[in-house]
Amino acid sequence: MRKTFAVVWIPAVLAGVLLGGCAKDNGTGPGDQAPLGVTNEQSAMQYYAANDEFVKNDEITFVDQAIQPTDYGTFGKIDATVTPLRWGRSITNVTRNVSTTVQPGDSLAIALIEKTLIGELKIRAKTGAGDTVTITKPFTDKSTRYVIFKRVNRDRDRFWLNWVPVASSLIKGGTIEPNNLINITKLELFVPDGDTVTVTDPSTFFLRYRWLRLFTGGKKDAPELIPGTMVRLRATIVSSSPDTDVVALRYGFDMFHGRRMQMMLISQTDNGNGTYTREYEREWPVHFHRGFFNAGVDALTRGTLFDDEAPYSVSWWGIPYRVM
């Protein structure tokens, strides 16, 4: 029989920028004593799921420090309500809920990390009359991510070390109903060794932490990339917007070193039912900072940026990767 446990964290409102992360382990290291607030195996898994390096980095990946110029270059002459010059997404509050389900056999468990992110999208834009204005669109996004744990011990005294995270799904986030007008349906990551990671369901596609050598399940190993090499990412988007969407590739290693790059439209199909399937692609260089990160695709309907009255509508996924 499966056993499910849940815990909710609601941190204080953040001053325009999401710092991410949770409480540390009381300063003495996980081998010396249980992390603060951890009283049993279930709360230990919840703690380590929330503090998994990929999980902490996903929030950094998808927020901005300011209303920034993009790498899109000029948008050119367009017929739109406003022409965006700079834009940025900030988070003012995040609620995290972590639940764990122990699988039959008591050797594997799955942690579900659910987040509700409340914030503002700010757009610096020019109106048709040539005036420069700042448009603010409040939003509520939700995201999910799963982390697989493997039991490595049954020590009653050091219970917080009995389970180890061994694999992660992709992060999947976006606008809540009824404004979810755009959806990512597939990501393909092409790495230099010729391998391809293809994902159509981010919640069931688990990437193993190969460097731990503890888990043989999942779909593939989390990509381990070499600094300076080039990686290509392709995204398939289904949108109800007749105008081409704005799709950005996001990556970076901390809150001050994030990149946001335009993904280029390479194909488009009218599905005949009021929706459009579009493919976008971008090649990017692996940064030289080592650690655990996410390559994020951030898809926005054109109206989100180009129409001051259109609702905010986005979809975002992130593939975990490690820089060696």
Produce the secondary structure layout.
Layout: E1 3-9, H1 41-50, H2 53-61, E2 82-102, E3 108-127, E4 132-151, E5 163-168, E6 171-175, E7 182-190, E8 196-199, E9 207-208, E10 220-221, E11 224-225, E12 230-239, E13 246-252, E14 258-262, E15 264-270, E16 276-285, E17 291-300, H3 302-306, E18 314-323
Parallel strand pairs: 9-10, 11-18
Antiparallel strand pairs: 1-2, 2-3, 3-4, 4-5, 4-6, 5-9, 6-18, 7-8, 7-12, 12-16, 13-14, 13-17, 15-16, 17-18
Task: Estimate what percentage of residues fall within beta strands.
Answer: over 45%
Number of domains as seen in the coordinates = 1
The description of the largest β-sheet is: 13 strands, mixed
Order of SSEs: EHHEEEEEEEEEEEEEEEEHE
Low-pLDDT residue spans: 9-29, 72-78
Identify the notable features of this structure and list them briefly.
324 residues, mainly beta, 13-stranded mixed β-sheet, five-stranded antiparallel β-sheet, 18 strands, 7% helix
Commentary on this structure:
- Helices cover 7% and strands 48% of the residues.
- It has 324 residues and is mainly beta.
- It starts with a strand and ends with a strand.
- Strands 1, 2, 3, 4, 5, 6, 9, 10, 11, 13, 14, 17 and 18 form a 13-stranded mixed beta sheet that branches. Strands 8-7-12-16-15 form a five-stranded antiparallel beta sheet, with no helix packed on it.
- It contains three helices and 18 strands.
- Mean pLDDT is 86; it is low at 9-29 and 72-78.
- It has one domain (3-323).
